[in-house]
Write the structure tokens for this entry.
Amino acid sequence: MKRDKSIFTEAVHADQDISANHGALSVPIYNASVFAFNDSDQAAAVHNFEEPGYFYGRLGNPTRSALESAVAKLEQAESGLAFASGMAAISAAILSIARSGDHIVALKSMYSTSSNFLKYAAEFLDIGVTFIDATESENYRGAIRPNTRIFWIETPSNPLLNITDVETVAEIARENGIVTVADNTFASPYNQLPVTQGVDLVVHSATKYLGGHSDLSAGVLAGSKQLIEKIFSKGVKLFGGAVAPEVAWLVLRGIKTLALRMKQHGDNAYALAHMLDSHPKVKAVYYPGLPAHKNHEVAKRQMKSFGGMVSFAVSGETEAKTLLNNLRICSIATSLGGVETIVQHSASMTHATFTQEERESAGITDGLIRMSVGIEDKEDLIADIESALEKI
Ligand code: PLP
């Protein structure tokens, strides 16, 4: 990963344009949805994007711009685009790039709502989709059709922490004129920079690590100026899922501590994954930092550390739920990426919308627990989980 400065420095300063904000170290929240002009020529020029400026909240706001440029900087991309949720960003990206008659290659095992959105696009919008095992890069090549428009990448994937070789898949895409989109929510720009590995567009649920405090919903895209402008003209202008200035500001505040948090999330997850791996009641551990993980070597090459997510399986649904019900520090909740440790039973929560057959094919067993490891003390977390494991 190449950066001019360390991410510990860049995360703190990514949003700063002191000259634009009267020296304010925290970007102000511009609670404005309407912007007036000095004269009609200026009004026309800004409305037609011939001059920089703001005119209407859905189409731009200085606080939102600060977030967009901060994420672009952290992702080493030319431009960013912020939305009201990760799904607003994802749906806008897909519907701005692909049209009816196109085809998308995506992962068999991925975030359930992204997957469900692709199934919706296939059923109602005539956008074909092929779901593959994305742990083998060649499966992307094998799924290409003459009308393939997008390779969807999610690495590490939700909830099984599968790893896709980003550089190789991006290379296959380039050879075939296909746009690559990588969901970088799990890794965050602390751990992984898909744009520097050849990916065209990065997607974030900023609800997760970028925000970092379980207190907001937002999404961000980062990519080339040309691609972002294309998505802006449809995905923001027509679909309208823009982020509110207050929320953009909360994400910006979260980003300042992103590197610190990610380091602690990663250290804690590493310790927990190793404890779970040697525990007799744990049937499987899914964590790219374990040498036995199928793509451990790929993860080592493309990630700075292995992130804060760990999934593991106990023998069945009853045991998984008993474990969850006996945790004292870790909360049972569906999201991830916040400072607090949260756990969920994937089969009955995030992936309940998958059929049993789809879950089996994606490797999501009834005993699977997904854990978003927080920034608490790792010994306290280990003690909490060990004591709950004793109850099953
Ligand atoms: N991408 C991933 C990997 C996710 O885990 C999620 C949500 O859990 C999303 C996208 C969607 O983001 P949001 O809930 O902010 O719409």
